[in-house]
Design a protein that fits this description.
CATH class of the domain at 1-96 and 264-360: Alpha Beta
Helix content: 40-55%
Order of helices and strands: EHEHHEHEEEHEHEHEHEHEEHHH
CATH topology of the domain at 1-96 and 264-360: Isopropylmalate Dehydrogenase
Number of strands: 12
Radius of gyration: 21 Å
Number of helices: 12
Shape: globular
Bound molecules: nicotinamide-adenine-dinucleotide
Structural class: alpha/beta
Largest sheet: 10 strands, mixed
CATH superfamily of the domain at 1-96 and 264-360: Isopropylmalate Dehydrogenase
CATH architecture of the domain at 1-96 and 264-360: 3-Layer(aba) Sandwich
Distance between the termini: 25 Å
Length: 360
Amino acid sequence: MAYNVTLIPGDGIGPEVSAAARRVLEATGVEFHWDLAYAGDQAQDMHGTPLPDYVLDSIRQNKVALKGPITTPVGSGFRSVNVALRKALDLYVCLRPCKSYTGVPSLYQNVDIVVFRENTEDLYTGIEYDSGTPEMARLVDLVDATGRGHINQDSNISLRAISGTASRRIARYAFNYARANGRRKVTAVHKANILKSSDGRFLSAVTEVAREYPDIEFESAIVDSLCMNLVRRPQNYEVIVLPNLYGDIVSELCAGLIGGLGVAPGANIGDGAAVFEPTHGSAPKYTGQNKANPMAMILSGAMMLRHLGEQEAAERLKSAIAQVLAEGKSVTYDLKPDRNDPTAVGTSQAADAVIEALGR
Ligand code: NAD
């Protein structure tokens, strides 16, 4: 049976790494019907919007998508296609496994951390107020009236809301994952010593869920202290669960612990659909150069295979990737000890090497 999967090539290096992942996934022997859907710059040019409805409809129907990175304009313009997509489909889990691979140059070895980032709330709801607007003036008055403090009139405000509902569901997902995957410990990350209300809510919700999992060790960590300890001894962590903003930052830190964005895959998962995409962005400066590392996108494809129930193909693919990385020959510039190494291969050749390893 062929799986119907929405394929969103994305912007910048997205089309190259997506094409590489598509070829590799097909080489596993699993069959796919790819439903090509354009979001980002291409969609803006073709349809006048970076996130046309047909893209969301395709994902809703297929329930699974493989997505390349999409550029987000800074400061102004459409807020973020990525955030809008996660919100529209209620993809409340952002799952980012960060695992060391032999052969990948890195300061650390034996890192194996799975990051669960809450994907729908926190500072990413896009509820913002600019100075000089009537809404902002009303907010300033409201805060004054509560007697909690004062906001300068020329401030801009981004609202941060954290609910018990969203915190509990990401926590439950992380604990279920830990249990199903033989992980012994879950660490909840917060700044509840300062953000007593919002982060306090997150921490109390995760602590409440932790009681339902007496077989899994539970600890909490303040986000700044966690960052220091991750850099000192990343092997102390197994599963980390965080609100959206900390999750965004810490998951990229964890990618750094395993040798960089080139090998950091990810998934955005909800109850009705899942979108698999690498942690990295569209790296515009490498567009069209056959230079970007496709491994993070291919590893995201391996996560997708697992999600589809194709465990054996997923394991075979991961082992083929591990072989290519361990050999260190057919890898892109970012995985060479010297980034200017002339023997580095291109995106498409790295994918060829994985396909070759699949056939061994
Ligand atoms: P980036 O991840 O695109 O690039 C950061 C650095 O990592 C750059 O030096 C880049 O060259 C390198 N890099 C990234 N991916 C690589 C790969 N596969 N192989 C080799 N090197 C790689 O981050 P950025 O520059 O902050 O963002 C660029 C754009 O991507 C922005 O518009 C941003 O909003 C967007 N973005 C999108 C997503 C997504 O679609 N999920 C995620 C992150 C960033």
